[in-house]
Amino acid sequence: MTRHLLSSADLSREQTEAILDTAASMHDVQRRQVKKLPTLRGRTVINFFFEDSTRTRSSFEIAGKWMSADTINLSAKGSSTSKGESLRDTVMTVNAMAVDALVIRHNASGACQQVAQWVDASVINAGDGTHEHPTQALLDAYTLRSRLGSLDGRHVVIVGDLTHSRVFRSNVITLKTLGARVTVVAPPTLMPSGVSAWSAADGFATSWDLDETLYAGDAPDAVMMLRVQRERMSGGFFPTAREYTVGYGMTRPRLERLLSANPEAAILHPGPMNRGLEISADAADSANSLVLDQVSAGVAVRMSVLYHLLAGDGSEAAA
Ligand code: CP
Questions:
Q1: Assigned domain for 2 exists
Q2: Deepest of 7, 35, 53, 199, by most Cβ within 10 A of its Cβ?
Q3: CA of 271 to the centre of ligand 1 (A)
Q4: What is the best residue among 48, 49, 53, 273 to mutate for testing ligand 1's pocket, by most ligand atoms within 8 Å of CB?
Q5: Does residue 317 lie in a domain region?
Q6: Residues 188 and 121 in one domain
Q7: Mean of the pLDDT values across residues 11-19?
Q8: CATH assignment of the domain containing 258
């Protein structure tokens, strides 16, 4: 296992599967009344979130605590970053306290790679700008594997604001590592330039037409809706919210048509959701929705990642 987890591309298929297998053992801990393992006793994990988060920050904190690590949360507001301290000085300061892992979320793409060059601690990318969110992709893969079994040959459709999505980038890498076929769908204004060059022959396709992708033959096993990230948009990427929903939202009629083609089709969303924009309440709360399974998997997968980076190869945890 690598010392850091900066990109989904850091993990081979074997390493990805090892993390998911260990996460399955960790998930059992989640179902116990006493949720505590001694595995990371004496280790210190700092969760440094320069951007807001509900799911990722709390699940990393819970994961560390359930494995007996000392976990400390820092955010830009409340740390000396708000007084103008540079990223380098901030992380070097924390590193000098002999911490074992730094879990970092930052609004700059590449920030985690940069930090990893400065510190001795293991660095885990908890989302950097529009670049990557590797633990999200791992928990999504875990959720899909729990539902579908092997992902080899499975068809996963990822829909929405691809331009601003780090979740989409990590998911394409991890899903393809695990043998899935991936189609990404977005309006032309939210399709990142160069994405269509990611090799159609390699189980990857792009489309501007959601209905054609969902209904024209290759019925998806899972559809992942992405959040429209208005806070990262500087201009008008679509005419109106209503037009976006009509073209690219998982509306009730679209869900019904999808499920009539494949009643088992899974609906995912990494959260936070814009209900009524990219996903209807009917879809988010349907029996096919795995949204809360994703949240639950987040703790187990992050326990597993901390374990593999800080404690060993996973065999002890699996035992
Ligand atoms: N999916 C995700 O990263 O959610 P948070 O921003 O709440 O962590």
A1: no
A2: 7
A3: 6
A4: 53
A5: no
A6: no
A7: 97
A8: 3.40.50.1370
pLDDT band, very low/low/confident/very high, at 23 (cuts 50, 70, 90): very high
106 and 140 in a single domain? The answer is no
- % of the chain at pLDDT higher than 90: 84
Q: Are 39 and 307 in contact (CB under 8 A)?
A: yes
Nearest-CA residue for ligand 1 atom 3 is 56
Same domain, 71 and 178: no
Listed range (83-87, 290-294, 303-307) with the worst mean pLDDT: 83-87
Question: Could you give the C-alpha distances from 308 to 3, 37, 86, 147, 259, in angstroms and in order?
Answer: 9, 14, 30, 24, 38
Ligand 1 lined by 298 (C-beta under 6 Å):
no
- Which numbered atom of ligand 1 lies nearest the CA of 54? 7
What's the whole-model pTM score? Answer: 0.95
d(CA 269, CA 262) in angstroms, rounded, equals 18
Q: How many CA atoms lie within 13 A of 12 on its CB side?
A: 4
Among 49, 55, 301, say which to mutate for ligand 1: greatest number of ligand atoms within 8 Å of CB.
55
Q: Are residues 96 and 205 in the same domain?
A: no
- In terms of domains, do 85 and 180 share one? no
CA of 319 to the centre of ligand 1 (A): 30
pLDDT of residue 319: 42
> Considering the domain boundaries, does residue 237 fall inside one?
yes
* Rg of the chain on CA atoms, in Å: 19
Q: Which atom of ligand 1 lies nearest, measured to the CA of 271?
A: 1
β-strand 155-159 against 122-128: which pairing, if any?
unpaired
- In a shared domain, residues 180 and 240: yes
Residue 71 has pLDDT above 60, yes or no: yes
- pLDDT of 230: 80
